[in-house]
Please model this.
Amino acid sequence: MAVDSSNAARQSPGVSETNDLTPTEMRVWRAFPRGESVDLRAAENEDPALGNTWGTERTVRASVLRTLLLKVPQEEGEIAALRITGARITGVLDLKYATIDAAIRLNHCHFDGVPDLYGARLRQLNLSKSVLPGLTSAALRVEGVLHMTDCRMQGPVRLGGAQISGALFMERAQFTAPDDSEPVLQLNQAAIGGDLWAPEMRAHGQVRLTGASVAGRINVQDAEFDRPDGIALDAQNLNVGAHVRARCVRAQGRIELRGSRISGRLDLLHARLSHPGDTALRASSCVIGELWLRGGDRIEGALNLRRSQIEILTLEPEMLPDQVHLSNLTYTVLTPHEPAERRLPMLERDEERYEPYGYEQLTAAYRHVGDDDAARLVQLAKQRRRRTTLTWYGRLWGYVQDVTVGYGFRPLRAAVWLLSLMTIGSIAYGLDHPRPVKADEAPDFNPVFYTLDLLLPVINFGQEPAFAPDGWYQWLSYTLIITGWILATTIVAGVSRTVSRQ
Model:
């Protein structure tokens, strides 16, 4: 009989705990020890946002749920769990610093007060399809999975420093707040042992992920981040063990990824990034396996990839904004393969001082795929950009090298110049032979070799010292000599530059 009394005591709440429970709360109380579900919905697909119109038959006090979770023992042979669907929860669910062994599932519920889970330790928490005025859960620890799928959060969600052993699900969740005094979603310094799954999420205010660590993937495909006057997604020093899937994401405001490490791919295909007059995407000082920026609208605002290390950079020229910062950006492969003329504008849009490193990186990318012609064009563009930083006489000499031999990257141009000048000189001296210096010792005059003697300073055919032109022919010879020296010097400089790069 004593055993039976004990079992009865465990199965039924004491008088002191239940003398003021409503029939609905009694139903929840009795279902908890056995882990049974209590569905209070009057109709399928009822909108929990209309919770303030529900009667007492669908209302449960938060204090009752707290007592259940903290004091009611489990029934022998059963696994206790709090499973409620379609309830209006009044008051504040205060589980601060509590350790709860039972799983908690509160779906399709409407919360009047902001639940306080600060420092709590939970086995599992499921708030899917519920409406909450916010959530205070910094330093929360969840041994399993945290579900906020289809939630509507109407105030700040504070999950900073949370530790979630499993995954965090926030598909189609909506985050808003009465003002922008703090982020609508805070996951700074959070540690997630699985995936962060939030496709089609909507955030009207800042989302903060600074210093967070996600062992698996992050999926924010088709998500919206809306904070036009500031940072929409602050994910500085984010650490991701796999991919970040952000296809078709729409961001009004800056996406801040400075100092982040993404082992896999940062997928921004078809993304729409907008922060006019400021930086739209800042991924500086990052280490990323692959970065995909392709197929989306042109970025409105600056793109900053300074000092980052990216193994494969997929960058479509059409997405590039007017201002691009690429100084000390390192990448191995640049796709899709585009002509150099389409890639060079991204280097010219960097408004900082002349940085040769960007040109060297683009050159290396073309050489990596065997496109030496494009690599030479990039090097030519580098010399032209450098020329703008020189003194007037340096710029003048640069123009001479550019016009004559294209800084050594267009050697055929020198041959054309030499051939043209040789033709002019041969015709001119063929029509009027210069007089010999010593008639009895002079060789037979040859206008072609005489012109070559003037043009080529390192070759002597014996024609130039044996004849002395006069009048305008003498000025022509001076011109050919000077031009020959300039061509020879520029050719040597260009060849030396090419050899030193090899």
Observations:
- The radius of gyration is 38 Å.
- Residues 53 and 165 are 37 Å apart (CA to CA).
